[in-house]
Automatic annotation (TrEMBL):
It holds the Pfam family ADH_zinc_N. The lineage of its organism: Bacteria, Bacillati, Actinomycetota, Actinomycetes, Mycobacteriales. SUPFAM superfamilies: GroES-like, NAD(P)-binding Rossmann-fold domains. This is Zinc-binding dehydrogenase. One of its GO terms (molecular function) is oxidoreductase activity. InterPro entries: ADH-like_C, ADH-like_N, GroES-like_sf, NAD(P)-bd_dom_sf, Zn_alcohol_dh. Residues 222-357 form the Alcohol dehydrogenase-like C-terminal domain. Residues 48-183 form the Alcohol dehydrogenase-like N-terminal domain. Its cofactor is Zn(2+). It comes from Mycobacterium lentiflavum.
Length: 414
């Protein structure tokens, strides 16, 4: 099959604007990324309760684009997650697909059925019995077994050398990893099941107070999903958004954000957020001012950079919560407001079973229900689609979001 493979020798590529010195760093990195479109063996079934699917529409996750565009930073070699993946990889875990082959032990699926992927390679897909306590409780992203069994290390589809993802003509999956998509839900909606679920987990595990004020830092897929979720599930909460690009800001407003702020300059951002939230600014000798009392109850940070943390802890109220949902390289940041205001800094890792409106079930099931009920429509986020052989064009659109207006970019394999 044809697949986009990461962890191979780079293919020669003339990057637009590189010789003229006008290409940005991410664009220039496409000339040296260890990624190539290759012919590889069709996927095998690791166990008899797995199936083979044919991807229809596969979203490009922010973590995938960071990896291919080499945007994790130069000083991140000690990343502890390095032990939870294997190479080479065929990425792509935001997948809408058709079932094309059933293993002898697969249950609950039919050939020809349209499905969306829950990508976690937890105990069940790995054939681990008894399942670990995390899987028993439905916290699949916290599974204890990501390096165990006869499947090579990987937390989810696309980061294990044995479980190829949606950037390919065929994709394997365990029968528990696939959710049937109702006929009423088009691919362009179904493809957002994964990013929606990531943001749902961050919000439902760390919900805002009634009639509170929250900041969604970043207006990419996770940030915009967060805005839509807050609007649908917490309509009495006022939501501010920090957006870097005009296209993102426009969708944030469409999804119900009360205020949308530019990401720079950060001094103006702090001042505007505090003016919106009603806090009081205290001026330091150097650096950004701090709000005390603060203006914001919860910050959902979908960027995860030192400079975004610095803003977040400055505008949060005392004993507010900073939820780190974004993934980026580490770096120094001035964190004295963290201890002074007794702020809770918490991580949020993907999704599993979540509680919504008193009902606990898998996040993807919640998403499909909300869409079917007309309470969620994320289609304005899908701005660009490309065929797999135009993969460089897809990543060029992401590398140049300010010009392209890209938010969610996907590979269309229909």
């Amino acid at each position: 099959m044809k697949a986009l493979v990461y962890g191979v020798a780079p293919e020669p590529f003339e990057v637009p604007g590189l010789s003229a010195g006008t290409a940005n760093t991410l664009t220039a990195n496409l000339a040296r990324t260890p990624t190539a479109l290759r012919s590889v063996s069709d996927p095998r079934l690791p166990h008899e309760d797995w199936v083979i699917t044919r991807p229809r529409l596969t979203g490009i996750c922010g973590s995938d684009s960071k990896q291919i565009l080499m945007d994790f930073g130069e000083d991140d070699a000690d990343n502890a997650m390095g032990g939870f993946c294997s190479f080479p990889q065929v990425m792509g875990h935001e997948v809408v697909a058709d079932v094309v082959e059933l293993g002898a032990g697969a249950r609950g699926l039919e050939v020809g059925q349209r499905v969306v992927l829950n990508p976690w390679l937890s105990c069940g897909p790995r054939g681990i019995e008894p399942v670990c306590p995390a899987c028993e409780s439905g916290d699949y992203s916290l599974c204890w077994s990501f390096t165990d069994g006869d499947i090579k290390p990987g937390i989810h589809t696309g980061v294990s050398a044995d479980v190829t993802g949606g950037y390919a003509e065929l994709m394997p999956a365990h029968d528990s990893m696939l959710f049937a998509v109702p006929d009423s839900i088009p691919d362009e909606m179904a493809v957002f099941a994964d990013p929606f679920s990531v943001s749902l987990h961050a919000i439902t595990r760390h919900p805002p107070p009634r009639s509170g004020r929250v900041l969604v830092y970043g207006a990419g897929s996770l940030g915009l999903c967060a805005v839509a979720i807050l609007q649908a599930l917490y309509p009495d909460v006022a939501v501010a958004v920090v957006a870097r690009f005009d296209a993102q800001a426009a969708v944030a407003r469409k999804f119900g954000a009360a205020k949308v702020f530019a990401h720079e300059p950060r001094l103006a951002l702090v001042e505007e957020l505090v003016a919106w939230g009603g806090g009081r600014l205290r001026q330091p000798l150097l650096g950004l001012p701090m709000a005390h009392p603060g203006a914001i109850d919860v910050v959902y940070d979908t960027i995860g950079k030192p400079e975004t943390f610095e803003v977040g802890v400055r505008v949060l109220r005392s004993r507010g919560t900073l939820v780190k949902a974004g993934v980026h390289a580490p770096g120094r940041w001035e964190w004295s407001p963290l201890y002074f205001k007794e702020i809770a800094l918490v991580g949020s890792n993907a999704f599993g079973f979540e509680e919504v409106d008193g009902l606990r079930k898998h996040a993807i099931a919640h998403y499909l229900d909300l869409v079917a009920d007309g309470r969620m429509d994320l289609r304005p986020m899908l701005t660009h689609t490309f065929t797999l052989d135009r993969w460089r064009d897809a990543f060029l659109a992401i590398a140049n979001q300010g010009k392209s207006g890209a938010i969610k970019v996907a590979f269309d394999q229909r």
